[in-house]
Amino acid sequence: MLVNKQNIRLIFGLKLKQLRQQRGLSFAELSKAAGLSVSYLNEIEKGKKYPKAEKIIALASALDVSYDQLVSLKLSRKLAPVADLLHSGILDSLPLELFGLEASTLLDIISSAPTQVNAFISTLVKIARSYELTQENFYFAALRSYQEMHDNYFEDLEAEVETFVEEQSSQGANLRPAVLMTVLHKTYGYTINREALQEQPELRRFRSVFSPKDKVLYINDSLTDMQQAFLLGKEIAFNRLSLTERPYTSTIFHVNSFEEVLSNFKASYFSVALLMNRHHFLKDLTTFFDRPEWDPEAFLALMDKYRATPEMFLHRLTNLLPKYFGIDHFFFLRFQDQLDREDMYVHITKELHLSRLHNPHRNDLNQHYCRRWVSVRVLSDLRAQSPASKLLVDIQRSHYTGTKNEYLCITIARPNTPTPHANVSVTLGIQVDAASRRRIRFLEHPDIPLREVGETCERCPLIDCEARVAPPSVVDRQQEDDAIRTHLEALIRK
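RESULT FIELD:
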């Protein structure tokens, strides 16, 4: 693997610091011996500067080592975990500055840590290799952490949206596709093309593609008005927020950098906030939560009022629940069901956990998600429809077996337009606690079914589960291990 310039600076700085400390030299003493300023030495050790050849010669002489030894990229055995970390590419994948960290600071902590900590770092690197975790995995994990750090609410983006709406002399709810197209055309010089994607079968999976050279936005003509409005709102955001490092397809086809992932998130947030005005939406949401009973028709009517897609609607809830309702323990999951498979094998394509990691989560071990989840059950119902053209909405209180955790889960399922042969469901799971009980009046209404659920069939200990599609292999292995452990302990005691 090629080592980039930043990593070369970091390795040189670590070696210099280690040699200086081994020789018992302070910054001032090495500065005097090598004829370099203390501030310059400090920047070298932090990996911010790489000295020229004559200065390296001076440093090597002052430290009594050869030039080649000092510039070699080979680190000592003690710093081997640091080398593994640099060569793994993990540091290149993580946007450390987003979390107030510098790579040099992190490496300094690791290099000064006890052997056990270094072994732990090596373990993480090995896990990343074994499970083939890519830069993309790290980018999206970092984005989710970034959202969770801010309770998925960004006042600067909300304020920018409201400034834009005021400039248009219109309410956000009235910004239809025609208005947004006019803004893109007159303000940013865009041209809209609705034919090209339809004519190329390989590109029909994308809802839009942007050509930066001639500023042409290719839109899939099969989209609803609201789907088009969302994409147009994103394009306005990319320009208005000066997000130059951005993807050019509606869904990121190939991730090039974390900045690209972050820009896509910010543009999406802006667009949803633009189309679902927070002040109007909060008023309607408060009224809905104050209903004594769950009413799916009223829920769909509220979504229809804002002409929102299911994903937009639930995402807007995740923005506003913590800030305005004090509800900050929830998860969001997006499932996809590939209809070209005879057996229903759903997988999670998006997830968000606020305040902590909740029980339902993505599992990349090819295990079968619990069919008792309302997220999965509604997809099964949608699959049974012929043709599947209607939105399905359902609600359930889910208690996770073996825990005290219970969630109010609201799910919406629909065909995945324009992607062929796929259905999707989106679920907002709100933890049942004092905050949610206080703000959602219908939360514990007896008409809402309460079900005992697991995580995956392989990990579920429930007996005689009517929805099971795979044996509890993980549970069985654990029971076998427990039995062996019991016999071993008995033999040892005897």
